[in-house]
# Entry
Amino acid sequence: MLSRIKEYALKNNVPIITDAGLLFLKAAIIDYQIKDVLEIGTAVGYSALAMASYGCSVDTFERDEDMIHQAQIHFDLFDNQKSIRLIPFDALTYDQELKTYDLIFIDAAKAQYKNFFEKYTKYLKEDGIVICDNLKFHDLKPENVNRHTRQLLRKIDTFKNYLTMHSDFNTTFFDVGDGMSISQRKMK
Ligand SMILES: C[S@@+](CC[C@H](N)C(=O)[O-])C[C@H]1O[C@@H](n2cnc3c(N)ncnc32)[C@H](O)[C@@H]1O
# Structure
């Protein structure tokens, strides 16, 4: 099932988590005994279905109409346990209350990571974790990219600094997949 969705994503140029990133996510789900996940960035549902197959219940945000349509097809086909709730809204403007989660997985617009983090960590359980993907952003170097991508790289760097300096969270960065982090609340 996952390999079919991965194939679909690759064929249609839909960015999805790398194999190494997914293994990392799976290990974290097992290590931290994650049950409830909030994902920001569904795309076609690959990582959400993977996390559901590891036993998680997943609420997942997607704002793009085509992605929403395709993800829903995949969930109808493959989410047999009905573990996934697709929230078809822009996570930045969504204004309904949510439950609390063991894991918030941020994998959406890179320039908005700080906003996602600030908006959604209030829904993180006391001992929950936040995982961010794409912090290496395909290993692009500022000197080799256009102005827009350079700005994006700068924003990712600013976000990493923000995490490093955060007074309430400890963050570890991992050179895995496209660059991942795990943030956990500091003990009071
Ligand atoms: C990298 S893809 C997600 C890949 C997916 N997590 C996976 O590994 O299978 C990022 C997705 O986030 C969505 N996205 C970006 N900004 C968003 C926002 N503010 N709210 C909801 N979805 C957003 C994009 O439309 C895109 O489909």
The first helix runs from residue 2 to 11. The pocket of S-adenosylmethionine is lined by residues 15-17, 41, 43, 46-47, 61-64, 67, 90-92, 107-109, 112 (CB under 6 Å). Residues 2-185 form a domain with the Rossmann fold fold (CATH 3.40.50.150).
